[in-house]
Structure formats: structure tokens, C-alpha cells
Amino acid sequence: MKGLDRILLSRMGPIVAGIAVGVLAPLLVHLGNPGNMGICVACFERDIAGALGLHRAGVVQYLRPEIMGIILGAFLSAMAFGEYRPRSGSSPVVRFFLGMFAMIGALIFLGCPWRGYLRLAGGDWNALFGLAGLFVGIGIGIFFLWRGFSLGRSHPEERSSGLMMPLMALGLLALLLIAPKFGAEGSGPVFFSAKGPGSMYAPWVVSLIVGLSIGWLAQRSRFCTVGSVRDLFMLKDSHLFNGIIALLIAAVATNYALGLFKPGFAGQPVAHTDGLWNFLGMVLAGLSFTLAGGCPGRQLIMSGEGDGDAAVFVLGMVAGAGIAHNFSLASSPKGITPYAPGAWIVGMIFCLAIGFMMRQKLD
């Protein structure tokens, strides 16, 4: 265990975490998860929002154990190595809206950065447009960071305050296992899809173990799909980006081995072929993630460490999933909806406005 931890804390750490994601995600698809969606933080939070009744899109409702596992794995790792440090107070309301617009952008594309890479590794060439948009969105965020953008400092909190997200994860696991029905004649949540992507899932024990493992590995290695690109361009440091390369190589190899690599544009699972909006959706998501300080996976991990600001961002993403489906903003394999462009414009105006306004003076 000590030897593994030394590796995770070294420059090899992100590579190990990337390989783990690249291998385990296709395995989850092989065991029942939707195609090219072994792990997608945005999609899985969207499914959780649906299971809790925050939206009524019947094909995307399920309490995904991977999300709970990532939070709990990060929490256990932080506790074990003295990195559980509850803190908050860094523009929580702004972070909530950043999470909301990040989710809207991700659901226009149909995937978070993790799924963008996994879609590409599965042969979905539409992901190239999404990843290009992600890099552009991160680039815009870097423009603001160079000019002093900051959401302010967080402040230490009581140790008990950092337990909220781990306790929520345990509560969601309990709901998954008990599957209670509320409301008249059991018509209310918890909802589970009878068809569509929400009805496709690996055995919950396997999904939970995968989530716990990735949460632990990513917490120790600081694995982040957005921070890796930011550091590559701002600091000329490829330390984190090596994890992305490792993820792609491992995922392509695993997909080939399992017979899941199916190259092309058309007919890809839970994807559409509108290149422009694949690009633009991830511009909004990438910008939101960069301004908030990390990709959705990293936000989950930090929330497990006790970071209340990251927890607010995660909750903003869950709320954004409900808004996206209730207001017909989320894409489908048929493409975007008529209402998505308007929401995208509002999101970009919000992100650009706080990018220009929330700056500290540089000496």
C-alpha cells in the first residue's frame, strides 16, 4: 500500500489513475453500462437527478453507484492520509451557477470531459468536436486566469461540515438498495428507467467498487481532465496531462479487447452528429469547469475531501440536469433542441461576465 501511494504521489500518479479509468470504464460498459459511458460524471449526475424526481425524462433515471463511490473513495483516502480539510466560502452562489451551466453545456454535447475521451476511445469521432470545444473553453478560462480571475479564498470549517457529501452519498446508496416509492400509490421517486440509457447498468456492487477505487486513486494523484490542460498551457507542465494520454491508450486497448471499438460518426451510442453544437456545448462546459477550478470528477473528489465549494458546484450540476431536461435543453441522438441555443447564450454571457468582473488586482 505504501509503495502504491508513493507512485500516486509521484509524476506517475496521474498515469496510474488514467489507466484505471481507461480500463475500468469499458469494463463497466461490457457489464451493462450504456455504450461509451462506463463513467460519465455529468450523465450519471443527470440520471441521479432523474431518479430523485428533479426531472421526468423516463429514459435517464437511475441512482448511479459510481458517483457515490467516487465521493466515498475520495473521503476515505483523504481521511487515511490526513487530507480531510473542510473549507468553504469561495463564492458559493457563483459556483452553483457555474455547475448549472457546466451541466447544460455537457448535456448539449452529451457527456463530460471524462466521457469525451471515452467516446473518442470507443471510436466515436463526434467526440473530436466536443474535445476541441473543451480545449477552447479551457483556453478562454486561462485568458481570465492570466488576468487575475479568482472566486476568492475558501476558509476552514468545522470538521463535521465536510461530512455532508459523504453522508449524502451513503443516503443515495441506501435509496438505491431499498428502492422506496413515495407519493400516491408509489408513484413518486425513487424512479428507475424501464428503457433507455437509465435502464442500462452494471451490477451495483461492481460499479460501487470501481467508483471507490477511482475516487481513491484520483484523490491521491490529483487526476483532473480540465486541470491537466490548464497546467499544460499555463505552466508548461505535462504532469497531469500524461494521465489523459494514459486514459486514452488504456481505453482504446480495452475497447479493442472487448470488441467495443466501433469507429464512425453515425450510430454512436447516446450521441448526435451535430459537430457545431458538440463543439459549442463543450466550450460552455470547459469554460465553466475552468472558472470553477476543475473538471466534474475533480469537483466530486474535492467534495469528498470536505471542500464545501466543490460540493456546491456538484449540487449546481445536479440542479442543472433537472433544468436541462425540464426545459428541453438536453440533446438526444436526434440532435439539439430548439431551446438549447438560447440557454447556451445565457450561460456564456454569465461565464464571460464573471470572468471579467471577478478579478483581483495583480501587482
Automatic annotation (TrEMBL):
Cross-referenced NCBIfam families: seleno_YedE (TIGR04112)
Keyword Membrane: yes
Name of the protein this chain belongs to: Sulphur transport domain-containing protein
Coiled coil (UniProt feature): none
UniProt superkingdom: Bacteria
Membrane-spanning parts: 12-29, 67-84, 96-116, 128-149, 161-180, 200-218, 239-257, 277-296, 308-327, 339-358
Pfam name, any one: Sulf_transp
This protein's UniProt keywords: Membrane, Transmembrane, Transmembrane helix
